[in-house]
Amino acid sequence: MTTVNPAQRTLVADPRRWWALGAVSTAQLMIGLDLTVMNIALPSVQTSLDLSDPGRQWVITAFALGYGSLLLLGGRLSNLLGRRRSLLVGLTGFALASALGGAATGPAMLIGSRALQGVFAALLTPSVLATLAATFPTPTERGKAFGIYGTAMGSSSGLGVVLGGILTAYLDWRWCMYVNLPIAVAAGFGVLYAVRPAPPASGVRIDLVGVLLATGGLMALVYGFAQAQTEGWGAAITVGSLAVGVLALGAFVWAQSRVSAPLLPLRVVLSRRRAASYLAVLTLAVGMFAALFFLTFYLQNVLGYSPIQAGLAFLPLTAGLMIGVRMVSPLLAARRCVGCSARDSSRSRPGWDCSVWSGSTAAIGCTSLRCSCWWVSAPGGCW
Predict the structure, then answer these.
(1) Burial classification of residue 82, based on how many CB atoms lie within 10 Å of its CB (0-12 exposed, 13-18 middle, 19 or more buried)
(2) What's the pLDDT tens digit per position in 48-94?
(3) Where are the alpha helices (DSSP H) in the chain?
(4) Contacting residues for 283 by C-beta, under 8 A, at least 6 apart
(5) Most CB contacts within 10 A, which of 22, 93, 158, 295?
(6) Where is each Major facilitator superfamily (MFS) profile domain found (predicted)?
(7) Which of 89, 44, 91, 127 is nearest to 99 (CA)?
(8) How far lies 16's CA from each of 13, 21, 33, 157, 320, in Å?
């Protein structure tokens, strides 16, 4: 009788793994699209809902802030709920928030729905990355899977701008929100079919103090920079908000060095390779997303482009992103998730380091020109 080594059993390929990849990549594509899909629609939204000039940035900022500040918490919740359940909860919540935004009757309703989208997206992304790490145990297939995921994520921002222009021109800006409903449904059915249930991890604790300090600090910083645009840099509200934000984030760093289960272990950001990669991506994204925001208004309000023309004007950017991601992914495949399998085998939380610490550690860039708030995450890598 042939005996099977227990280690070999854990590497048996799931016959539905590529369907699972398609489902979770679709979910992440939806999130990436929503980072920019509303950009082209903003002039139409501003006219339709009577948004003020300072208020219009919150349509973008609310999503980015909710997403970036809660990614680490989303990783912990994913462990508590289990990957499959987290994916389904995240997709359902994201779809409902999108429907609420599409039906918005005023600025508060739209901005609130965008914030809710960010909250549920923060639950989805760590679950997506953990699912990939657990579903593809062999290094070769895992590299391919993360390459496909990287293509979807890397091209989604550019595609979102083009899609936003098409939807705004031929339908209505509200369809920039409603478009998420069929995408979420498709991804949800894919998750139900292909993603295997996984038991919740044991012994997971949530650092509530860290969550409050990080989220509160980022919100205070964003609000302070927003006030600087209208009130000036020397205004009490501006200085006070910025001071509160800096103090809260400083307290967050101090707390993370002393709690037993930190949201963000400091060794992650103190690693030179990781820190350098995060800084590089942060710098790139701050410039790119700020350019997308302001070019949208320049193209439509100054040059007189229609929404579809403005969206198509970003096609070179979209093509460049897709080509760049495809060129870079093979170069990184040999180094991606090196040692993850060994770590996973010794933990009850598959892919924790890969999916949450390296993959979803949020770097929030809350300054850019006139206070646009942009998020950055470095998806799917152990460096």
Answers:
(1) middle
(2) 888 887 778 888 888 888 887 788 788 888 888 888 899 999 999 99
(3) 6-9, 17-36, 42-49, 53-56, 58-81, 83-102, 107-135, 139-170, 175-178, 180-194, 208-231, 236-256, 266-270, 272-297, 307-313, 315-333, 340-345, 352, 359-360
(4) none
(5) 158
(6) 20-383
(7) 91
(8) 9, 9, 26, 28, 32
